[in-house]
Design goal:
The protein has about 250 residues and is an all-beta fold. The chain folds into two domains: about 140 residues, Immunoglobulins (Immunoglobulin-like); about 90 residues, Immunoglobulin-like, CATH 2.60.40.10. The chain has no helices and 19 strands. Strands 2, 4, 5, 7, 9 and 10 form a six-stranded mixed beta sheet that branches. Strands 13, 14, 15, 17 and 18 form a five-stranded antiparallel beta sheet that branches. Strands 1-3-8-6 form a four-stranded antiparallel beta sheet, with no helix packed on it. It is globular and about 55 Å long.
Length: about 250
């Protein structure tokens, strides 16, 4: 989920809407799209790119595209704010069955001088017609969120992840992470370990950590269990581990 100016998101579930493969599995009744790429990265000096959508349904689908600046608050929640720095053309379109649509994505203005800029494209399916008599009135609509990363004007962008602090408060363990680099990183797994190194709880959802951001995740300790440490693994294969401290 995502926090916009009017809605708040759950910490670790923030990336649940992101596509993880070429074929996006969607609920029954929603459009079925194949999208590439599922992560948009603009290199230094690059001002535009393309996203391709293919409608794998037997019926026509319609979508709108909105662009947002993207940041994270200290609870790991994604905050999206409308922006005019990213444009998507066309912003409204229809896709015929088994046809495709090309979205041209442009970055306006100069990139940040020494850090990666973060945006998201939100694609929302639009209703094409009212439900016919005798058919269900509610149709699940697809909503897809694509990350957009624009490289800095000078040098390269790279993450520098640090596991700052791990502490227990009542039946919860809080994991404080810092990315002091100027580029994003992504978590593959966070595990809560017992004295023997066995897993008490884990989160397998991929969570982005934006450059120069601090995020605190919360994990529930199973009843009666003793949590000894937390292990954090990134998609690039880095692993960090730190003992759990009691909250003073």
């Amino acid at each position: 989920m995502i926090q916009t100016p009017s809605k708040a998101a759950a910490p670790v579930a923030a990336m649940a809407l992101l596509l993880a493969a070429w074929l996006f599995a969607v609920p029954s009744g929603a459009a079925n799209l194949r999208i590439t790429p599922v992560k948009i990265e603009m290199a230094p000096g690059q001002t535009s790119t393309e996203v391709r959508l293919r409608n794998a349904e037997s019926t026509e689908s319609a979508f709108q595209v909105e662009a947002f600046a993207w940041r994270q608050n200290e609870r790991g929640e994604d905050v999206l704010e409308p922006t005019d720095q990213i444009v998507a053309i066309p912003p409204l379109f229809r896709i015929a069955p088994e046809d495709q649509q090309v979205i041209r994505v442009g970055h306006l203005g100069a990139p940040a001088p020494d850090s990666e800029s973060n945006f998201r494209l939100v694609l929302t399916e639009l209703p094409l017609q009212k439900a016919e008599a005798g058919t269900p009135a509610i149709r699940v609509r697809l909503r897809v969120v694509l990350p957009v990363f624009v490289a800095p004007a000078e040098g390269s962008a790279a993450p520098e992840l640090r596991l700052d602090r791990v502490f227990r408060e009542a039946d919860e363990v809080h994991v404080a992470l810092a990315n002091t680099g100027n580029g994003h990183d992504r978590l593959a797994q966070v595990r809560l370990l017992d004295e023997a190194g066995g897993s008490l709880a884990e989160s397998g959802q991929a969570l982005y950590l934006l450059g120069r951001s601090n995020v605190t995740l919360t994990m529930k300790v199973p009843e009666g269990a003793r949590a000894r440490s937390v292990e954090v693994t990134t998609l690039s294969g880095e692993t960090f581990q730190r003992d759990v401290q009691d909250q003073p």
